Amino acid sequence: MSISGLQLDREQLLEAYRRMRTIRVFEETVREEFEAGRMPGFVHLYAGEEAVAVGVCMHLDDADRIVSTHRGHGHCIAKGVEVPGMMKELHARRDGVCHGKGGSMHIADLDRGMMGANAIVGAGAPLACGAALAAKTLGTGKVGVSFLGDGAANQGAVLESLNLASIWSLPVVFVFENNGYAESTASSWAIAGGEVVRRAEAFAMPGYSVDGTDFFAVFDAMGQAIDRARRGEGPSLIEARTVRFFGHHEGDSQTYRGTNEVESARADRDCLVRFRERVLGAKVLDPAGLDAEDTAITTMVANALAAARAAPPPEPGDLTADVYVSY
Amino acid sequence: MSISGLQLDREQLLEAYRRMRTIRVFEETVREEFEAGRMPGFVHLYAGEEAVAVGVCMHLDDADRIVSTHRGHGHCIAKGVEVPGMMKELHARRDGVCHGKGGSMHIADLDRGMMGANAIVGAGAPLACGAALAAKTLGTGKVGVSFLGDGAANQGAVLESLNLASIWSLPVVFVFENNGYAESTASSWAIAGGEVVRRAEAFAMPGYSVDGTDFFAVFDAMGQAIDRARRGEGPSLIEARTVRFFGHHEGDSQTYRGTNEVESARADRDCLVRFRERVLGAKVLDPAGLDAEDTAITTMVANALAAARAAPPPEPGDLTADVYVSY
Amino acid sequence: MARIRTTRDALNEALHQEMERDPSIVAIGLDIAGGTGSAGEQDAWGGANGVTRGLWRRFGPARVLDTPISETAYLGTAVGAAASGLRPVVELMYNDFIGVCFDQLMNQAAKFRYMFGGKARTPVVVRTAFGAGFRAGAQHSQSLHALFTHVPGLKCVIPSNPYDAKGLLMAAIRDDDPVVFLEHQALYDNKGAVPEEPYAIPFAEASIVREGTDVTVVATGRMVQMAAQAVTRLAADGIECELIDPRTTSPLDTDSILESIESTGRLVVVDEGAPRCGFAADVAALAATEAFGALRAPVQMVTPPHTPVPFAPELEDLYIPDPDRIAAAVHASVRAGR
Amino acid sequence: MARIRTTRDALNEALHQEMERDPSIVAIGLDIAGGTGSAGEQDAWGGANGVTRGLWRRFGPARVLDTPISETAYLGTAVGAAASGLRPVVELMYNDFIGVCFDQLMNQAAKFRYMFGGKARTPVVVRTAFGAGFRAGAQHSQSLHALFTHVPGLKCVIPSNPYDAKGLLMAAIRDDDPVVFLEHQALYDNKGAVPEEPYAIPFAEASIVREGTDVTVVATGRMVQMAAQAVTRLAADGIECELIDPRTTSPLDTDSILESIESTGRLVVVDEGAPRCGFAADVAALAATEAFGALRAPVQMVTPPHTPVPFAPELEDLYIPDPDRIAAAVHASVRAGR
Ligand SMILES: Cc1ncc(C[n+]2csc(CCOP(=O)(O)OP(=O)(O)O)c2C)c(N)n1
Ligand SMILES: Cc1ncc(C[n+]2csc(CCOP(=O)(O)OP(=O)(O)O)c2C)c(N)n1
Ligand SMILES: [Mg+2]
Ligand SMILES: [Mg+2]
After folding, report:
1. pLDDT (0 to 100) of residue C226
2. Which ligand 1 atom is nearest residue C100's CA?
3. Are the C-beta atoms of residues C147 and C243 closer than 8 Å to each other?
4. Is D159 helix (H, G, I), strand (E, B) or coil?
């Protein structure tokens, strides 16, 4: 039986907080770095959505596998990918976690069970089914998790995967992060029926619609989903309603958002604030402890940034390396 | 408001019967011709499913458009494509309806609003949405109809189309012919939840599950769907449970089917027999009249066959003709 | 005085003018208006690259359709609509996304006319961004024109400057066949003279960017710029290159290429696509089969290596053919000559 | 005495032997068992072409998985599973269906290793039927190996006879990279010697089907048969062709081709794919860039025209390169020689 988030012990709660806060600090740092023109490429920031990745990944270990989206930094950190290697990757450094060849949109760390950010919307769903199939065939008892945006709910790859996972009873969980938008387009418009969770029923699997800014709600739904998966009963779908604090990507003017939409979300729906209030209210953790974490995380990320800036780029020979295992 | 099939007048009922019987005779003729090795390519026969195509197409005229499947002969005939041109096409003759370049799997007749059989399962769904979009944009009041097999219900193209049609309120009807199998694979297994119609709800459109061997049931459901489409309210989904009298394609040994499955379906679920019983019982049509139709149809198809056999093949220059409008 | 515009604006103008002229043209794509269903501004994006900006305001939601992220459904809808009397112009945000929807182009749009015995017309345009240089990584940087050129029934257009962008897009929209229209990401902000009045540039008419008698250089898209820099430099060294931009890879103006080779005897093909079965190989094969007698040196292909596009700027810059490599290839061609 | 088997049986044997050897191999595809969920016989089909027959009985439903008609989902699942420790062998019924699922190959499987800095292995094999001749029309008859060869990160294998079919499939399954394995529809019933014991044929090793010094003829798949007929006939006329079957188009054994051209000075490439940016052009380009000095005549490409595959037998037979056209090309090559 799954334990509820409220039953987590002190150290686990601290770990959840640590991961969420690390994501937040990481994203804010990346944003500054990108704005200052010191980071190449495109970045899609996860700030505001931390409770989803962490609520899900607190149930997983390195042998469970997740497949991420274009908005992948949070999933990485939640899954245990190390910040220095990530920061170097985003800076296109040779000892980045993908040796500088992936970048933000393709960041991956298979050793941590993180099968990659993915710049093709929806493409991760079948891949997560694959991880689940491997777990099932090899009898490891592990699961696959597919993180998806609301926009991905309309992509054929995803819809087919829901069906396949269901009839093959794959140990996979589809986690839809409904942050209200796919780029500038409202999810309430793009998704017939308005909600992703309706699709669970159509494909004969349990569906959970949870407040994605509430770590405990996500954690509890995921607990049930993962229990089902581990019992061999098949997939589940979680729709986590959440909020994107920044633009779709850095550079997005966001004029399509309502007046004060972001401000009020930041005020009322900040998952970190909510988590803090909850654990402080329940007196499981104390403010000083959390503040100490914050300081440590800020330092850690700042160090990672400094190291990333100073790190060397790939070498010319890397261009043609690692296309194939052998050719 | 739609009229019910039982309200159709004598001539309309006779026309429905004529189309269904024509399909049956056509398919049986094609089967013999194919078995005798006189017809090239692959053929997928529609015998047993006639009431679906005809129940749907009795609502349509030449300016409404249908997109068919690999099992397209029935849809053609139901939509008014002429048998001689079809028979020639299947024989790869130069004056076949596609000049011998399409064949059974790509038979089309745009003048009759038949946008083609399609050898890619599910590919027709977006195309039918396109016909619907054209009707909507040009304000013609016409509709698009996508015929699909049960197997197509799991194809991304189809699932995406359900969503798109719904949110764009396209005047399109998705008609799923659930004949129990996709090739040798049972639809009850391949479709999570067992039924296609559940997906209507997920994509926020009305769904109808009807006995596809009952012309009147199909006709009535289609009546409602098309009314909705013509009122500009959007798409509908019809799942017609039907039966395939022959193999998936000619040559299929069908060992995967249950003992006596086909025999008992032929005995109890023959849509032509059922239609006949119904109209004779209600005394709208008389047996002699129907028999006379049967004879006329048999002769017409035989003539078409003879003409097709005698017709000349394409000419060498046709090989490179009509790739582009201009190049 | 010449009217100077960016490629983006030239494309935008072509769309406006054509949609004004022909009410059967509709525009379809992700965020091509933007803000649909949202609380804030509608028409907020004008497409990921801003090419369709203003269309929604001008032509309204019936003709400018935002879509869910369902490339197969909306591309297929456009194809079906094209076969039913509309002239849809679809935006596929990046050509890399063709992987999720190629069927509707390669098996449907491209083949209708032939399969249906010449009875179908499918005037659909698929506009799509392509090309490397933006540190966008392996899935947003490809140059996939070889795939489109390979498929009989498709046409493939690659403008290299704002003037051509406008004229070729107009031609594509007026064309009665399915056309893939490739817009290089790095050229959107590129400026050049663009007349205000509508004009269409016929397909299969290469543009001779520079005349020369020593070496024929063929390049498309952004590679035209790279090659132009190289040949200017080479001219200073006394090597006169004829730089040809085919502008459409299908149909291809083989005559212009062959005539040039007849006069120069040397060919360098520059292409941003992958080398194997790519467009560079296609032109090299054309020369080897049709202009062999005139060739006086090995054909030189300047392409990226057979690798995905790397993220790191240092690697991506090495990946993309540049003026140095092009000049080196021209030198090699001249040296090897007989 | 040689053990004679069809290509179908050779492939089937390779699958059986490899799955026996390595429990991490799973087979996935439409009706590859057949009858799943039905009232009658299970394992009723063994795939649309009967290649996987018996696997389900031998290895059971956990390793032989029938699928719904969801190519993206099951191909993608195979790719994800390959990156997670299995070695899936997927059947894509016809290569024409790649249009609905190319993304999982071209953007995912092919790029993982590179994008992830060399840390991924994706040992997935996609077996797929291809080729014309069955009057199956434009959507079930294509030869799309150029698409696969074009994409860096994929390997592409095309056996032309039962012996190679078995050995190359074994090699493909043992290979650690994503491999597209193309089975020509018209060759399934083709017979030849096939040893019982397992053996793997290395990639990038062309087979010299016939030695000769006058003209190099390169052909793959069914075209090897067509070319073999042509060269036998030509030998009677005193023209000795060297017939090379590359067996894998990616990686390509360029050395064997180039060496042969060095000795013959003449090249005829026969290919069933479409001509533009196709494999014939690729080999022609190889010659024009790397063997120009040795070439004594224009390269000849023998391919179908730039059209979809027609349904009518009379047209399809004209479409497919045949021994007459190949022989004519060889004659043209010899005549044009210097
Ligand atoms: C197949 C495909 N289509 C379009 C895009 C362009 N694109 C990148 S992110 C994105 C929006 C995704 O929205 P959502 O799934 O809700 O995720 P979010 O960005 O909100 O996290 C789009 C359309 C893409 N990368 N892949
Ligand atoms: C994309 C694609 N996948 C697979 C096939 C091969 N195929 C042809 S028909 C068919 C079964 C279709 O079943 P269903 O949709 O139920 O239609 P039915 O044959 O029963 O009328 C399959 C798998 C195909 N043509 N296209
Ligand atoms: Mg979103
Ligand atoms: Mg069926």
Report:
1. 98
2. 1
3. no
4. coil
Closest CA to D45 of A167, B253, B247, B70: B253
Residues 6+ apart with CB under 8 A from B314: B92, B93, B94, B99, B100, B101, D310, D312, D314, D315
| Spatial separation of the C-alpha atoms in residues C316 and A73, rounded to whole Å | 22
Secondary structure of A275-324 as H, E, C letters: HHHHHHHCCCCCHHHHHHHHHHHHHHHHHHHHHHHHCCCCCHHHHHCCCC
pLDDT tens digits along D96-125: 999 999 999 999 999 999 999 999 999 999
- List C-alpha distances in Å: C256 to C229, D20, D144: 21, 58, 29
How far is B39 from C335, CA to CA, in rounded Å? 60
* Dihedral (Cα; A68, A70, A73, A74), 10-degree rounding: -60
**pTM recorded for the entire structure:** 0.98
Q: Is residue D338 predicted with pLDDT exceeding 80?
A: no
Burial tier of A62 (Cβ tally within 10 Å: 0-12, 13-18, 19+): middle
Q: Which helix (H) or strand (E) holds C103?
A: helix C102-103
Report chain A's mean pLDDT, rounded to a whole number: 97
CB D97 within 8 A of CB D106: no
Chain C, nearest residue to B101 by Cα: C115
Measured between beta carbons, which residues in chain C are less than 8 angstroms from residue D138? Answer: 107, 111, 114-115
Q: Is there a contact between D81 and A131 if contact means CB atoms under 8 Å apart?
A: yes
Type of residue found at B69:
T
Residue type, B57: C
CA angle (C258 as vertex; C257, C260 as ends), nearest 5: 70
Residue the block writes with tokens 């203003």: C54
How confident is residue C183, by pLDDT bands cut at 50, 70 and 90? very high
C338: tokens are: 């007989």
Neighbours of C205 (CB within 10 A): 14
Contact call for B154 and A160, based on CB within 8 A:
yes
Strands of A70-162, DSSP E: 144-149
Q: Which residue has the tokens 């993982």?
A: D112
Residue B274's CB: how many other CB atoms inside 10 A?
A: 18
Lookup result for tokens 């292409």 = C271
Rounded to 10 degrees, the C-alpha dihedral C326/C328/C329/C334 comes to 130
CB C328 within 8 A of CB C300: no
- DSSP 3-state percent helix, strand, coil across chain D (nearest 5): 40, 20, 45
- Taking CB atoms and an 8 Å limit, are A325 and D113 in contact across chains? yes
The dihedrals phi and psi of A17, each to the nearest 5 degrees, come to -60, -45
Q: Residue A153: what are its φ and ψ, rounded to 5°?
A: -65, -10
CA pair distance C10, D92, nearest whole angstrom: 43
Residues D88/D125, Cβ–Cβ less than 8 Å: yes
Residue A191: list chain B partners with CB under 8 A.
163, 167
DSSP 8-class letter at A114: B
Nearest to C220 by CA among C228, C212, C211: C228
Our measurement of the distance from residue A39's CA atom to the centroid of its chain's CA atoms, rounded to an integer in Å, reads: 21
**Contact status, residue C18 vs residue C170, Cβ threshold 8 Å:** yes
User: Residue B180 contacts by C-beta under 8 Å, 6 or more apart in sequence?
Assistant: B150, B186, B187, B188, B243, B244
Q: What are phi and psi of A29, to 5 degrees?
A: -65, -45
Q: Is there a contact between A105 and D58 (Cβ–Cβ < 8 Å)?
A: no
pLDDT tens-digit series, residues B139-190 = 999 999 999 999 999 999 999 999 999 999 999 999 999 999 999 999 999 9
Judge whether B317 is closer than 8 Å to chain D, CB to CB.
no
DSSP string, A233-289: ---EEEEEE---SS-SSTT---TTSPTTHHHHHHHH--HHHHHHHHHHHTTSS-HHH
